[in-house]
Amino acid sequence: MDTVTAHAKIWTADSAPAAKRNVWTALTRGLRGRCPRCGEGKLFRAFLKVDDHCSVCKQDFTPHRADDLPAYLVIVIVGHIMVPLALTIETHFSPPVPLQLSIYLPGTLIASLLLLQPVKGAVVGFQWALRMHGFDEQNPDQ
């Protein structure tokens, strides 16, 4: 009769489960333009350029892939704000078309520019919290 021997598991620091990251905390820190890990360092070095690393905790931000996604999200968010506003104004007040265009076009442009950086920061924070696109220390070649 053959005997089965169990292999002893050897614990190493690399085999330890990764610490959980709070998604909501990372999202709110990203919305404020702060590092998703420590919440103190700046996330952006320019208006839409994510810094290479956090100045406080040295978190590496080079693996992020949030270049195109925030623009689409901002369009959707601004659309969901401006369309009901336009419909409400049109049904209750019915202003002339030139007045409507002078309100909606600048409003859409301003809302888009104001939301672009916070949405991109939230996407980077979300990616960091879920260890997506290279933010996982256990799998650096991802």
UniProtKB/TrEMBL annotation:
InterPro entries referenced in this protein's UniProt entry, alphabetically: DUF983 (IPR009325)
Q: Which spans are transmembrane here?
A: 69-89, 109-130
Q: What is this protein called?
A: DUF983 domain-containing protein
Q: Which organism is it from?
A: Bradyrhizobium sediminis
Q: Which UniProt keywords are given for this protein, alphabetically ordered?
A: Membrane, Transmembrane, Transmembrane helix
Question: What Pfam families would the database entry show?
Answer: DUF983
